[in-house]
Amino acid sequence: MKILTAAQTRQADQATLREQNISSATLMERAAAAFTQWLMARQSPAEAGEVLVFCGPGNNGGDGLVAARLLHGAGYAVRVFELPADRYSADFEANRQRLPAPVPISTVRADALPAVPPAALVIDALFGTGLSRPLSGLAAALVQHLNQAGARIVAVDMPSGLLADAPQPPDSPIIRARHTVSFELPKLAFLLPQNAPYVGQWHTVPIGLSREFQAAADGNRYFVDATLLAGRLPRRAKFGHKGTYGHALLLAGSRGKIGAALLAAQACLRSGVGLLTVRTPAVGYDILQTAAPEAMALPDSSPDYLSELPDLKSYSAIGIGPGLDKADSARQVLEKLLRAATVPLVVDADALNMLGANPELLALLPPDSILTPHPKEFERLAGPARDDYHRLDLLQEFCRAHQCYTVLKGAYTCLGTPDGALYFNSTGNPGMATGGSGDVLTGVLTALRAQHLSALDAALLGIYAHGRAGDLAAQHTGEAGLVAGDLTRFLGPALQELTTAEAF
Question: How is the subunit organization of this protein annotated in UniProt (predicted)?
């Protein structure tokens, strides 16, 4: 799905009104009902306790008024507080009139901010996507007051004070929500680490926004889900054989880091590759032959580090980096690979660090290579970022300049492409923040490229399946107990979920 800007979100609302021939009040009722149903499914009246609804003067405040009315009708104890304003939106005014008399409504005053018991449930409906500048005055004071109260806060569509798709100045007042319930689509702000303290856990609820508008809207930011990936992973052929599914080469490992090579190899094998050869220093030979007998081991003459590039003519994709170390001999192997490779490359870990330290090597990177840095590795490649939004700009510039696909790893791993598009992954969990998880991803991507998938399809399928394998594994191990080796066990089921169904 596309990630819309704040302006496009407002345009989507208007397109929905026209196409469905409904009023803005009807769409507001629909949105607030979806929010309220989400809340009531998780908190009974007894569990919620007193519900304090804080409303701003615009349509986000109107959503809050509708939610207050619906919650009151369902038996919740509700009080409403509105920010004073010279002008309120028409739908806000209408829904203020519809608020039942038993629901108390008060105007917030600067000299007497309302008491907020820590046990209360606070609904933040002060400001939504229409906000274009940091909060100030009474609104800022109220946000700080709510944050300090220690109550549970649920934000309607956006935490008040947070901009949907741009950074705020330092120390801007922003609601710190425990949950944010967004209408129809996630916002870019939800996907960036710097905003996590404000967004909390985010959720989307459908409100019937125009599908036609979403499909036609200009934009190059996407949220990767199974729908977006439909049709990208073909079903395996009845008469296919190991040659059909490619021969991958992994260049990986060094003394003390053969485990990285092994994890990448096991992941590659579990991701459908037909044949796999693993080149490691001689110290890794017995380990690989024992722990990954399905792979062919090709030991280097050096005992501790890679020192020789093998003949490349047999391979359909090559992965390099897991556990490689930065020894000079390994750097020479990387340079020879960059100069000689005629098949797709996946570059990870120490191979990335060597690219960052040696710009002349980066200049040799073949087009359509897939790079898999974590944020620090990416900084070594592209320079430091002022904030998470600037990092996305750097990612786009880097991918355009080097005509590569860059997988910037994180909670919502972001794939940058040569044409400037950004794809944020929807799968994965904090249990995957463990050593070796990236090595597994390298194996997955190398296998998919070896099977002749395009760089874009391989990268999208790879990051999604990698995260989905982590989600499946966490159901068995829990997040704290998850180790990288668990991911390989669930790569097959994760990829099977994505396999194109056979047409009747």
Answer: Homotetramer.
